[in-house]
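User: Please predict structures.

Assistant: First:
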Amino acid sequence: MRKGKGRHTGYARFQKALLDKASEKGCSFSCDPCSLAWALQVNDLDLIGLQCVESSRRFLFPEGRQLDWLEAHWEDTHASWQIILCHAPILVHNPNRNAGAPYLDKNTRVQKILDHHSRIIFLSGHTHVSPNMLTGNGAFDAEHQNIYLDCGSVVATDTSGESGLMSPDWKDGCRTELVIAMDSVEITMRSIKSGIRYPRGYYRFFTGDAARTTR
């Protein structure tokens, strides 16, 4: 979400429309007191959205209420997996940024909350998936059994300052597909326009005693 009253209002309407549609299909959801963060239960998955606000390329959780709500929410959920959507990535698990400063104003607190739980898939944007990141754009925290992934943009975009492996397919928009089982997660990123699977945009994470990662 970008700063600005008009944009905030527009996004709020969009979010409400999506949650109303989910409710019509029989899905249950809850929101934080400010109606910014939300959680949607779908079968054995808990889908959580965190709404950070941009200010001079920093992302803020106003007054920390969303994070208070997130901590309390985990006391009431028994889903096998939690999928968290947050525009800004977490510093330690962001291969495009982990030598720099965090984007999130409460980055450390968010990380501590996540480290108290397991089987989380944290999907972020902002820095986005990069074809030139040789080590990939996903990270698996084996200690906590949590997955962190930089996702591509769904709209046409350039990865700032990059060349080399960049091709038109990367610039046309990207969708992220997840196949989630009890002991593994398969992630595929494809061009929205062509459907081509991206190099370094495919991951399979295994959880439990045989935890390992393939790219």
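Second:
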Amino acid sequence: MRCKLVNIIVVFSLLFLCSCRVEMPKDVIPPDKMEAILYDYHLVQSMEGVAYTSGDYKGKLFYRGVFDKHHVTKEMFDSALVWYNRNPKYMVEIYENLESRMQREVNALASLKSSRVYGVDLNFAHLNSNISELWTSHNVRMLSAVPLNNKLAFSFTTPKDSTFVTGDSLSFSFNTMFISPLKGAVNQQAYAAVYVEYTDNTVGSYALEVDSSGHYELHVPRNYKSRLKSMDGYVYYCDDDTTNESKLVVSDISLRRLHPVQSKSSAKNR
């Protein structure tokens, strides 16, 4: 009798779990394929502002190339994103895999260099004469309110013989996606800030509040009196979800340095 009771409980438990499972429509891109598409999609997004501007014809061709590579249309991709956002458990799993994949690839590249710090490595950054992409870590992070996983942070000091010059400007940008299984019941919030110090010991701090999914940018204006000495920055996430299931995806992270543009007349006079 006891065995029969146990079997009945097991059967009802399985039926309950099956009834609670959200069935994925056949026309939605499956998770493994969606993960591959998002990986290439974020790579293209991370190039914006460096190789071309957002909305540029060349940029649109890159996005089209991603969809063609995976044999989907933009409409299929957008529709799948809507479904995954409504079913955050699937989305969380996808971005956990993306984060691990990007970290593995960055570690593989970093192993070729002896000097390595998290986020920014000036010896490994993509430096050129005008615009430089300084961010060298993986550009997708998933944050939760759990301590030690609630902050994306970076810090670096510029060497004296670096390509940084007086008059440089800096831009720290990223995209955000708030994910929560408890729609409307969770207060999710994030804050971003950068702190800069110059060789003449002057300092500057810039911050913004992140309260919705979208694109954010912190701009550090030009300092024509002194060269950048060091920079610290972070994105800090918090919420009131006691289950710790709510997340913040920070993607397409970019830290760019832009040299001042010299006029032709000033260049001739030098």
